[in-house]
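Summary for the funding panel

The consortium committed to producing paired sequence-structure records for every protein in the target list. Below we show the first two records in order, beginning with the earlier of the two.
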Amino acid sequence: MKSQRNPLLFAFLMVASLFFIWGFCHAMLDVLNKHFQNILSVSKAQSGLVQTSVFGAYLLVALPAALLIRRIGYQRGILVGLVVLAAGAFLFIPAGLVFKTFWSFCLSLFILSAGLACIETAANPYVTVLGPKEGAAGRLSVAQAFNSCAYIIAPTVGGLLLFGREVDANNPDFHPLILPYVVLGCVVLAIFAAFAFIRLPVIAEDGDPAEAGADQTTFRAPLTRQPHFTAGVVTQFLYIIAQIGINAFAVNYILENAIIHPADGDPVTSPLFAWYGAVTHAATPEATAAYVVTIAMVLYAVGRFSGAWIARFIQPHLLLALYGIANAIVILFAIADIKMVSWLILPLCWLFMSIMFPFIFAMSVRNLGPQTKIAASFHVIAVGAAGSISAVLMGWLWDNFHSVGISFSLPLVGFIATAIYGFIYPRLLEKSGRTA
């Protein structure tokens, strides 16, 4: 048993390290929106095209990546993704030193994200099959916790480098933006070298080497006839709209809620916000808001570790439903826009979002056997489609209606859908079993 488990544990730890990389890439987006608004004078809706560039790559690359991985295997698929990711990171050099345009950065992010899409298409399903099916959701949640650790670091890096000083829109300096991506590219190349010299366990398509003698039920009906899968993809789409939209405009929301700008008079800042800025030595209000997002990301990481542990005592589908309800309540406070109060409640959203992607993913690909790789690509496509429209749509609503309530109604729909999927999941899984 020991010799059987150790290779799986080593493989899990190696693949989990990849989650840190794409977590850093995604978390940096949360400060890029506001940075581009400041340094390139783009609107909220235009800055949302940062997310469109990233998740548009997911939308276009996911299915070809799944077909490639099905042909060459998980490990080689990861290697391909790492090479493309590094290329996109290094493209920030000409984008910032030569072209110096918003669109050049969007192109760099698109290529970088094509690599991320390939990695995610391979890594997420691989983690779910590295052990018993019953532990798949918790196992993926732990792997995603590595992702969350990067989410803690990235806003702090962004706050220090991008918001650490006043910007001159007439003479923009992109060196602070280039540095983290050059470092990222070098780290990715080092990880590529490590993966090139190890050998990950090969997982059989119809089973799981760690489940010898256990239930190896496989639903063989087409994916479109398996409601636990199709409903999971739809739920993932709606949830990602919520997550990306909140992430994209968290800094904007915190600034506008914690600092009141009367029509006649000086701005009034929340005492707690001002105190936190002083404690963190933030150079600008934007930096203080970015550091508030760092607290949210700490809650995100705590939620992923604790969620995997709680799932040992509460069924994952029920835990997902309860977290969906909790987040709907948090978003209602955000929609209420209680000045100097709602910004304090908003970080709780990340605590309850923490388990949603891994749990929805693991629950929806359960018992899919040889269809798992293709099924995983549909989740990445859902992420791409949702991410491509979410930030732009929320930004457009905010710009045109000047209403937090209208823009944040999108995340509310996503969390309600997540709660519903959690509650009805056992019936969906049973129905899929009957069609198999």
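The next record, for a separate protein in the list, is shown here:
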Amino acid sequence: MFSIRFRLLAEQTRLIVLGLVAMLVLMSCAFQPKYSEDWVSLAEHNEQPNWFQDAKLGIYFHWGVYSVPAYGSEWYPRHMHFPNEPDGLHHLKKYGHPSEFGYHDFVPMFKAEHFNAEQWADLFLKAVAKFAGPVAEHHDGFSMWASKVTPWNVKNMGPERDITGELAEALRKRDMKLITTFHHARNLQRSEKLGEETWNSHYPYFENIPPSSDDPKLKYLYGNIPENEWLESIWFGKLKEVVDSYQPDIIWFDSWLDEIPESYRLKFCAYYLNEAARWGKEVVIVRKQDDLPLDVSVDDLEKSRKNRLEKKSWMTDETVSTGSWCYTEDLKIKSPHDVLHVLIDIVSKNGVLLLNVSPKADGSIPEDQQNVLLKMGEWLSQYGESIYGTRPWYIYGEGPTKEPEGHFENHEAFLKIKYSKKDIRYTTKGETIYATFLGKPDIGSEVLLTSFAKGQLPEAIHIHAVTIPGAEVDVHWQQNDAGLKVEIPNAVMDEMAVVLKIETY
């Protein structure tokens, strides 16, 4: 009897093992990598999926240990080491010499005690953002997720909470997508000797300050690690960890990605895109420079934007403030209509806006910044059909205001731009054309939209209705060879921007 039972047990065990082996074989076949580590293979992925082109607005935030001093900007971790610069003088006066009070000494002060992922996600939802997420890691080496790669992370230190994990869960409950941004290519200590100042290293390498310390723990924060080890374990390791743990829909890179060897850029792209294929998701990679091919990634412009219509989707990262990206005690906040106008202009040219907010170290978002998001959200809730899911028309718009050429180097010129009711931006959806005035046109005035002129249009169009969304009034209009003439009706219209919905057949 025992022998029979033993044979039955052995046979059951054999069948279980065979089943497991078969399952593993099937899984290995099912998850064969779709992309290899070369640009030709990676270019087969759709770098601008429809959901991204439809989204138009995302929100992220510069928030971390650098929010504690609340002085200067998010570059405080670097500038505090230079005694002749304002940040260095401030640090010396308030905290002492960096050799006595280093950047790592701010970490216990970053408590995020008022951070509430549900409240933040609700705010972003009210702003009608379609995706949101953190600066996962800035140049400073402190990770805003629960990391096993580095001890310097929000789960182990400071807040002792998984900020990225909590927010990702809250966003997805609201059908919003997750973006994580990475600025850590600059964190590696690239100086070759003490006393050397290297611009492409975030931390200076002077004697007797923490960035040059041999302390094995401090090295993880200050990037004082051999390059080959850093590239594999830190730069790629952190990206892999976030991909595996949170499955972000967008990964965005700041400048200095050109400092990362091409082999590692290929390695990351292949890993992320293969994992996304395994998840069954279309994901987006955004880069700021010419560091990744545009048939693999989306182009991003910092605090600037295109002055022409683009065939491919692109992105601008912009902030609600006129200065620092992170919270500072003297931060000046833009008006809601200025930020809304930037969004409308970007969308008309086939772009997407990634808008930054600047929370305080305690995890609260200041009321003046919330007001910008909420006011924009009110407008977008009523007129969002002219933004979300739209595509460009044959021309982005008309009017006197023209953006300069260039990128971040011209950001001061972009900051000075003020649109008016004479500036009009176009978008389309199906047979509908939206004309958005960047201001409120005068009631009773006649406006001629010359983009509809017979000699301008690439093909003839026939209009059968012109309305203002939400306004139950007749709009008198006439289409002729000179364009579309519209009489602005006596209706309740938003002071920030007014939309005409032009239906054609």
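Regarding this second record: Residues 2-30 form the longest helix (29 residues). The mean pLDDT is 94.
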